[in-house]
Amino acid sequence: MKKTSFILSAWAACCLPLVAMADIPPAPNLFRASPAQYDFRIAEVRGDYGQDFQFQYDNFGCLLRQVGLSDDGVEVEQNVYTYDANHYLVQHEECVGLKDDGTPVVDLRQIYTRDAKGYIVGYNRWKRRAQEETDYEMFEDIRGSYTYDEKQRPTHAVYMYYDGEKAEWYEGLVVDLTYTEDGKLESLTKTVDNALFEKEELTYNEQGKIAGLTLTKPGANDVVWMYTYNAAGDITQSGRPGYYFNYTYYEDKTLDKTFIPRKNIVDKSLFGLRNAITWYAAPTENSYVHAIQHEETTGATMVYEPIDQTNVERVMLGDKVEQDALVVEGRWLRIKPSASERGSVLRIFDLSGRCIKMQQVDKALERIDLTTLPSGNYIVKIAQHEAKIVR
């Protein structure tokens, strides 16, 4: 009896954490043009106030560099992105110019600490001291921490700032986010020393799309950004009097299937919704339907490229891939994990990123029951590898 009790206790200890983990979906990946999710990705922006930008990706679809070019095509600035083993952004560097040795001059470095599911829980910002042109020393000036609700929505952020004269950290900014009953972002409130610094509120139309953004600051008149839609559901104009943006769209490319880099909770809470929920001043969530082709005020024209779908179709299990390492046979998924992958938890995600099934894989050949999954496309992940399957 004691032995049986021990076995049951051990089973519970092993299985319960897996159930709890399954209840938490993985964080959205905002800087990866995954071929499982997108058909196109941003390749160039031409003529943005006269400047061109190029976007470069790695083999997994992660955005590696955003390069700004001079009129004669020389790189004058770049944003460099670094990722963890799960393809989540962990570092962003803003670079301008080159040192004498040819390496980029880093002006700003942002570091993101993530939990096991990929959610940002910590933030550190480093700035270049730049007391002289050749002064490349970096110093840390901001630290952030983040809280999420039971639905993994960010609700609270606290920012600590560094006082160089006193050589100490102090609480400089507290941010709270609220949501509507149907889960849409409703407001973002910033307070400093328990006093209101500013508040942003979003309103939605009958179709659930963002219709307006109101900025309230103590002692100042409210500023309201409005978004006008056409019959196709695309924003034709955004902004406020004297500060409007106007758009045209690609009819053959939809926003949900076209990758553009999106802002994260750090950007939203630190820099405000008006600066961080938009792509060329048009909100990217609960907003337009098609991919933007041109914005009139900035002069920017977007060029997208098709994503190579073969990368996701190819099974990536083990160091040397076998043709039959991962096969769907009727209602079964047959997997032959490598020795290093045995003992890992295999997870199956739908294309929205929601984990819908998980199972520990211990044997050299395993079969996983897919009966409960509707027909469709899914992403299978084990260890640091992933593959697309069709049920």
Automatic annotation (TrEMBL):
<feature type="signal peptide">
    <location>
        <begin position="1"/>
        <end position="22"/>
    </location>
</feature>
<protein>
    <recommendedName>
        <fullName>T9SS C-terminal target domain-containing protein</fullName>
    </recommendedName>
</protein>
<dbReference type="InterPro" id="IPR026444">
    <property type="entry name" value="Secre_tail"/>
</dbReference>
<keyword id="KW-0732">Signal</keyword>
